[in-house]
Design brief:
The chain is α/β, with parallel strands linked by helices and 487 residues long. The protein contains 14 helices and 18 strands. The protein has helices at 77-86, 104-115, 134-146, 165-178, 189-201, 208-213, 216-233, 245-256, 268-271, 274-277, 296-308, 350-359, 366-380, 474-480; strands at 4-14, 19-27, 30-35, 41-46, 51-54, 56-61, 89-97, 122-123, 126-128, 151-155, 181-185, 237-239, 261-265, 313-314, 398-408, 427-437, 440-444, 447-448. Bound molecules: N-(aminocarbonyl)-beta-alanine and zinc ion (ZN) (2 copies).
Length: 487
Amino acid sequence: MADFDLVIRGGTVATAADTTNCDVGIKDGAVAALGRQLGAGLREIDARGKLVLPGGIDSHCHIEQRSSAGVICADDFYSGTVAAAFGGTTTVIPFAAQHRGQSLRQVVEDYHAAAQPKAVIDYAFHLIISDPTEQVLGQELPALIRDGYTSFKVYMTYDLLQLDDHQLLDILALARREGALVMVHAENYDMIRWLTARLLESGRTAPRYHAVSHARLAEGEATHRAISLAQLLDVPILLVHVSAPEAIEEIRSAQTKGLKIYGETCPQYLFLTAEDIARPGLEGAKYCCSPPPRDQAGQEAVWAGLKNGTFQVFSSDHAPYRFDASGKLPHGEHTTFKAVANGVPGIELRLPLLFSEGVGRGRLDLNAFVALTATNHAKLYGLYPRKGTIAVGSDADIAIWDPGRETIVSAAMLHDNVGYTPYEGRHLHGWPVTVLSRGRVVVEDGALVAGRGSGAFLPCALSEFAKPAGIAVPELAYAAGHGAPLV
Ligand code: URP
Ligand code: ZN
Ligand code: ZN
């Protein structure tokens, strides 16, 4: 009789904390034992010479989402999760995105209906709040938080998403009260709007001007303001898709004051620059995302932030749009930089890129890689220790990496539905060759083994990381000592 359903034998097992040579015994979808010379499994995988890592968690990706401008993502929950799995990711947290006028509860139901029959790996949802009405803040959102949607994203820019500071404070106060985590897209709306108007009226319509209009200062200013709003109420926030050195400095400086300010960055800020957006003709549109990639010094600042702990999470911000009128170029060859659909694909390459350029080149150790790509996501969003680590009792979500495998990236080898990749032609070292979700093999020998709809929804718990730091600003401390607290 076998002791386990599956044994992964003889690999180098790394978590965010440790690296050990041992076997992993899996039973009923969970890790049942870690040790040397474990008993037999019904199935065994020889992992000698391989790395056995927690499956990645991509906590920022857009799947089957309609943008505020009405453009639909190229990936649905099948192609999006298949691509994620091939790249070593076993949990995704995309967005259930509210458009103005919509009921949040209805939005969540719609995303479930889309995901449940298609996802091949497990998933949770963040919410996007674009219409914080009394009904939304007073009833829908608190109830949804209790149902396991414990994080939500707010925007300081974009015509149909932008919230003013007053609205942001309402949402931050609610998050504090309910224990939810707020993710902030921080760019100064009016700076971008003003620059965009000047550029367009002077005939500067090419994609390269996207990077000009989304100025570094716009990101730095909004990051500072978001942090101040959060500080006023003593509520943690996560600044998402951070690219500008100015923004990184703001986050770092807040962290050194003891504020619970978290940072996320993405592959496009390590591996692309504004020069890519300046490629000839409309080609640059393939690289347009917000905030945009900056310059080489900016890339170095992002690497430094990953190394020194300013960033807790490395996500893809996979925003998949085809390079045609259905996606990137809504007005065909007449599309101006303002109308280009924002976002780049990256759900499959997120981990291989960081592994190759980070671990492979000695910029990050393996444990930091695991923390940045899996463990910290689970901790921030209330999925730990079920997800994000390899420990007895955790779901057996595991990616077995061949650290020596060489790959030349091409759009043709990827499994998303985008048709291009910003990383075409890059040479990568290391690739996840076998991927398990809850102990079942999802990807093996370059083939998908899991069926449509085999992924499960994960309600998220409230996270320790969303609890106030306990550093009240003097005005609020005064108010609390003189009658009912303000928040
Ligand atoms: O350009 C980007 N990042 N597009 C996706 C939407 C967002 O703001 O995350
Ligand atoms: Zn954003
Ligand atoms: Zn995004």
